[in-house]
Amino acid sequence: MKIIDLHCDALFRMQESRRNTLMEDLRFRDSNALNTNLQYLKKGRVKVQFFAIFIMPNVPVEEKWQRALEQIDLFYTEILLNPEIKHIKKWQDILQLNEGEIGVVLTLEGADAFGNDLAKLRMLYRLGVLLLGLTWNNANLCADGVGEIRGAGLTTFGKEVIALNNANHVLTDVSHLSVKAFWDTLELADYPIASHSNVFTLCPHPRNLHDEQIIAMIKRNAMIHVVFWPPFINHEKAHATLDDLVRHIEYICELGGVKNIGFGSDFDGISSFVTDLEDASKYQNLISYLLKYYREDEVKGFAYQNFIHHLPRN
């Protein structure tokens, strides 16, 4: 069964390997150290993979734009140069993928890269960014993230960014936002989405969504993509099973979200793994497990069809 995965950090990991001469040079095509290398994506039947641009918050402000450009360059030189890969530049391109092609989408995790410069944001759109999360865990000029103790919502600038996302049919990601910023975003975004978040009730980590947030997303007909990092699945534990992960899927279904669920692995951004789901090549293990408990059409929805049904019109 084909897969659409809304989040991985392979670009960041490849950049770190290039900047550190003591590290192995990670290659997208076949580096086993990458959870989402090309061979793993093929074996796992991943049809569309989203690749995040991510800048660590401790990078000096004056260097952040350059770091973002380096990751975009890796997207173009390491990923797009493979003949099996097709760059998804507009949403309808996903529907045009041929057999054997893998679509790739560029995303931005945290607005720190462009600071307060909307010209840079517009350039990111032109380079292919189709999903934008306003924050990582820290606060920035757009909003507070979940790790900012102040817990404030959107700034005036953040509201401008969402307006530009709306105008360009770009998804606005709520996964790392503070609770207040989440509600502000849900009010303003035409295309809200949670690219990699789980259920707070089952695992009280601040990165997970509360029931009220999940219900609000479902009412907005927005997608919620479950994430595979064990600390977001089992509270304060570094291990998880497929059954543990599926509990989060079942909980969202019980809240009415069976048609709102997708996958956002966070591969290459996580340091521990669900057993039998250690990289993209193992995706069909999850599919086989889900088919024990859900109808095939429901599992196809989780895997790819729900996202297809929620594509913005552009």
From TrEMBL:
What the entry lists under CDD domains is as follows:
rDP_like
**Family annotation (Pfam families):** Peptidase_M19
Q: Any idea which GO molecular function terms this record carries? A: metallodipeptidase activity
InterPro entries, per the entry: Metal_Hydrolase, Pept_M19
The UniProt entry's GO biological process terms, in alphabetical order, are:
proteolysis
Task: Note the PROSITE patterns from the entry.
Answer: RENAL_DIPEPTIDASE_2
What is the name of this protein?
Dipeptidase
